[in-house]
Amino acid sequence: MGMGEIWGGMGSTIATAMFLYAMFQQYCPAMPYQFQMIYSRWFANLFNPCISISFYEYTGERYQRNQVYVDIETYLTSNSSQLARRLKADVVDDSKDLVLSMDDYEEITDIYQGVELCWASCQTVSTNQTISLYATDASERRYYMVSFHNRHRKLVTEEYLKHVREQGKKMKIENRQRKLYTNNTAENWSGHQSKIMWSHVAFEHPSTFQTLAMDPVKKKEIVDDLMTFSKGKGYYAKVGKAWKRGYLLYGPPGTGKSSMVAAMANLLDYDVYDLELTSVKNNNELKKLFTEVSNKSIIVIEDIDCSLDFTGQRKEEKEEDGNEIAKNEENSGDDSKVTLSGLLNFIDGLWSCCGEERLIVFTTNHVKKLDPALIRRGRMDKHIELSYCCFEGFKVLAKNYLDLDSHPLFETIQSLLQKTLMTPADVAENLTPKIVPWDVETCLNNLIETLKKVKEEERMKAEKESKPTTKEANTVLRKIKKKLMSIRHLECLDPINLRNYMQSRLHMSEIILQVSVPNDRD
Ligand SMILES: Nc1ncnc2c1ncn2[C@@H]1O[C@H](COP(=O)(O)OP(=O)(O)OP(=O)(O)O)[C@@H](O)[C@H]1O
Ligand SMILES: [Mg+2]
Fold first, then answer.
1. What pLDDT score was predicted for residue 498?
2. pTM, two decimal places
3. Topology given in CATH for the domain delimited by 180-312+336-385
4. Do 181 and 271 contact (CB within 8 A), yes or no?
């Protein structure tokens, strides 16, 4: 049937209906108002059985985007790039790729369970000239409108819209550009908006657990622990604990603590909040910062021992009196400082449960300096030591840097690594090619040479430390002379007895005795 015939048929149907409606009204003028309404709706439905629902970008007084609108936008973005003919491209804050979405006043048709749904991207433009404080111009209100046949009303309202939102949320997480945040000083906050409290850049650190050089058994244990945590929503709710976990990473500089934080974020697909405690003035500011941290994130405090006064001095104070820390903080009258109790409150106090699925990571080079209260289990649930490079770690680095699984020189490197302390950072640096073109032998030999040099330096250092200096030897000699003067019965001791006597009484080493005790009594 051609279009002309369809329009012709529809025209005669409309004319008949209008005629019937006019007759009906003429002969039944006294029909109650409700009946009139029902019949007029019936007539309207007969010719326009279409229902439409609108979803506005901003609703009421809210200055945040309507979440339903955002979900629909994400859902339509994936469909519209294939179906719409007019698209607009944008770099969206949260997305890692360029986002293509339907242009204004464009329409696409989505199909769900065989039902056609027509989506349109619309705008109302008000003629009122208003000045808006909100993120969007109040005179332009954007919205999406979905239209469908009345007979699918139930399917759409009960199933389809739910499906759209779920898919939109899922796509958003998949396309999300993860971020690395750092806290701003309070002077730069304005209106307590999270965007001002934390600045961010895109988080694109390449470190993963595959590229981390460490003992493979330990590595697997950490990965298992993290995966169990990320799937533990139900478990944490059941045991009545906030869904968070603390990690303490400690070890010498260059052993991979920061690299591990990045690997954790990449494994779990979390954002990273690098909290610089020295720019937080007091506990109140800290509270505000914590409450603005999003879920699925890692809060990391690097070099916690250098951050604030959480270290040895406090430890001693606490050891003398269990309540000392709280007392000191209360009495100091100085509310312009972040205190240990303030920090602990966010780690496992009442405030720790605002937000979920969060890791709190502390890194330090000096674990012994830290206050035990800060790192006890339950606060820092897992303590991970990152140490000098072992042979297994070297193999990971050889694979990363030289794409090498094995080589005859590996054996030499293995035996040298057993006797030498070298950080993964130093091993990595020695493996890095320095000239073009490069070859693996040169890189491995570089490492071997450096390892030998370090080993020799360590040997010389140890030797030097074991020998007393001239000054030390003279001091000891003076002490011995003084002691000898006071020993009355010295004459009756032969040299061997004298040596034993001095060893037991003076606790002096064999070397010193050799220096200071003559072979004969003269
Ligand atoms: N375990 C490791 N596995 C792989 N690479 C490592 C490892 N440790 C260090 N590196 C390399 O050395 C560099 C420095 O490492 P990283 O910053 O993670 O050390 P760190 O322990 O955090 O040091 P610091 O205590 O000084 O902060 C990294 O960029 C990485 O290339
Ligand atoms: Mg570091």
1. 65
2. 0.66
3. Rossmann fold (3.40.50)
4. yes
